[in-house]
Amino acid sequence: MKLTDTKIKTAKTTGKDYRLADGHGLYLHVSHAGAKLWRWRYRFEGKEKLMSFGAYPLVSLSAARDAHDCGRKTLAGGVDPMAEKKAVTEAQNQSTILNPFRDVEALWFEKWKVDKDQR
Fold first, then answer.
1. Which of 26, 91, 102, 115 is 20 to 30 A from 50 (CA-CA)?
2. 37 three-state secondary structure
3. Structural domains in the chain?
4. pLDDT tens digits for 79-106?
């Protein structure tokens, strides 16, 4: 049974955590504290894995389904979607890390080389 936006919005908290299944391992985890989190349970190389897509309503039902479909395609290609997601995140983090020493060195070198090229 597929989830609907109305069913998600009306999901109430209880004394314990529960799941609202959407299909193919995608579900909405409703915690006892009221958080609604998108998760996907899948198997890779015989091991059960869990991948999170974010919190509802920041991640809509259609966005969660799109992310789930992308993950399923990656899994069908023989690649662990969670490992790929971590690799992409790490690559993005590496590109945004600033290296202040490199910036200072580049500025110093530009000033230093001005009179050195005229031989």
1. 91
2. strand
3. 5-112 (3.30.160.390)
4. 999 999 888 888 777 766 666 777 778 8
